Amino acid sequence: MKFAASLFLAVTVSGPALAAGQLPRTVVPVLYEIDIQPDATSLTFAGTETVTVDVRQATRTMTLNAADLNVTHATFDGKPVRVSTNAAAQTLTVTLPAVATVGQHRLAFQWTGKINQSAAGLFAIDYTSIDGSKARMLATQFEAPDARRFAPMWDEPSFKAKFRLSSTAPAGQTAYSNMPATSVAKRADGSQLYRFGETPVMSSYLLFLGMGDVERRTVSANGTEIGVIARRGVIDQGDYALGAAKRLLSYYNDYFGQPYPLPKMDMIAGPGSSQFFSAMENWAAIFYFEPTLLFDPSRTAESGRQSVHVTVAHEMAHQWFGDLVTMAWWDDLWLNEGFASWMEGKATADLNPSWKAGASAVAFERESAMAIDATSATHPIVRKVETVDQIGEAFDGITYMKGQAVIGMMESTLGADVFRAGIRRYMAKYKYGNTVTNQLWTELSAASGRDISGIARDFTLQGGVPLVTMAGAQCVGGNTKVSLSQARFGLDTPSKQPQTWRVPLVVSTVGGGSANAVVTGAQPTLLTVKGCGTVVLNTGKGSYTRAMYDDAGHAAVVRDYGRLSLEDRLGTLGDDFALALGGYQPLDRYFAVQAQVKAGADPLEWSMVAAKLERLGGLLAGTPLEARLRERTRMLLTPVLGRIGFDARDGESPLVGNLRERLIEQLGSEGDASVMARARDYLSRMRQDPAALPGAIRQPILSTYAANATPAEWDVLLEMTKAERSPVTKNGYVRLLGASVDETNARRALALLKTDVLTDPQKASLLRAIAGAHPDLAFDWAVVNQATVDGFIEQSSRSGFVVGLGGGSRDPAMPAKVANYAKKYLPAGSRAPADRVIAQMKINREARDRLQAATATWLAQ
Fold first, then answer.
1. Which is the catalytic residue, given 315, 367, 393, 605?
2. Rg (CA), the chain
């Protein structure tokens, strides 16, 4: 096959020198022709492939990736060759009898491999069918470095190639992949050989193969067939996602300026779970675990509908940002994930304005990103990745949520239309290729006519959170002169070291005008804003920064809180709480703002207040203030739940439904007697009639029951778990078995991990659930039972799973235990998750000491 120009771009893109562990570029793949013969019963498969390769430089050796594969035969241009493997490096080296000449050649392999029971490579999902029979679905998960568990490949994102895939499905089952099947041949035993069409050039991690007893439903949009594939009997639950995808496809075709290029786009629902991901953007064959794609109103609340839309929006955005244009190496993973996270919010906000997705991002995603970024364990958005473990670690809150916030800041700075023009330039220029971050900044700068690379690099090449401080404001002649400076916001000592950003900022006055500035360094930046009303820093919260006022400025914000936009109200709540956590200002400033959240406030405000009270309660658990703070929390939140009621009302805002869920679950965990009584009553009725518990409150009611369960009530949950046929509901029950605050129940849940009652993914989710209320117990058990835990956690989660179990501990000895575990079991380059857990525990201890006096004063009022 001739070498396409777009493929040449993909493998020769300018960028940093090769990272340690990257494959040489002397030989590159052009076309893979792969045939897979799975044996789902024995959990094994056999494979053959022929790869058309382009030898760029004469060589006698070719190195590619392979992991957990037993290669039994290999040829080069039809002649047998010798292969050797390096299990630690996950590579396979072919040694030729003579030097290969420059040009195209054919490299072929035969091998056998294993079908995993957790989501890596080709894996099995075991579940109970609607009729009660046992069933097994097969699927693949290749991101980040697991295509090499499926076939020998150049398994790095810059080695884009075309793929022709074929596979045999058992009688009665359907196979599906990135491209439509070009032929389906029935064999004598009833099995069917599927041959799928040739893909465009793409990265290996985007290849997909699945099969099972499934149904498919489709709609058409803009000439593309959109499908949902689900296990038999639940296809109706995919209708909402289909409708959402149809609207989103038109939206994205317009936004990116490049029409979706493949003939179909399937969304596949798997009835399992993973510790590492919930959905994966395989090109034209997007894989989702069922709760993120299927919507069952009888069992799922309104928040579930919103979650489906947001997840579909995220994965569909990847079909352009990630699939059509792909980062050159995992250092720039944020180009995929940060953009898709931002795009999910933008598309959701435009298509579902009543959900207030932009304000919600200020309240929650922005806060989550800064909570990680303001610690000594942060890292730049563009990070150095050299090992397989580090690839997995790159999928974190910095990559997703800070990336999302920084992209939002760049749109806010340039304006929506100019920003979109830059994105369209980027897509048109690099489609079917690979990029590094600077190429995005170049196209945005060209579209805007201004060099934005300095601001952009400040926020992507260094970790940390800026802090803009208002030193004073003065009204002069109908205008307000504001003095601003910039420093670094941190939650521990290392994260407070001096650091400089160029922070683009909008400052406004209530009832007046606004002005733009770029604030950098400690030297004052003087800004004149029209009007003499209350000054609002970072208006609209479009910039990624904390903002702190002087005393007079903060008092004015409290006074005029109700006149601020929703985004500014939420951002002020977030900033004031975080500034108190970090010791920059007293907690009473936050309490003063919280007091302005009135009975009829937006549901997002009450959701945020509830979240901050929950955080404060977690920090002060085990102190003399714990019981009083719980009582005050119930006193504040119970009337809010009383106003909106336990039952959903026709025509109510979707955000009211979200708030109801949060309040029921939080009050239940705080020991509210009325909520607990409701939960027990619902469970009693539900055992006779599963429909007795409304979908709108199902999850928080079940969570309340599980958290407060007696040993006898835990037995009820175990009985329900064993009897449940729906795999999604069963997985939820498994997590509930680990949610009890009763240690006896927690120990009984741990005992299940050594039985065959649960699948491997269920065991992992159960252990994480136990760690929520019993971090010391879960961590210590995992260390003692290391071999058992290694048997059910996924490779991509290995560096963070066990250390994360201890993160909620208040035991002063836990940081040393986590450090010792990491030193013993994790390679030196894979200890970043442990460092993050240790840093957060130290922050929690310091914040607990810092906030007790102010909290005691507030409780006494």
1. 315
2. 27
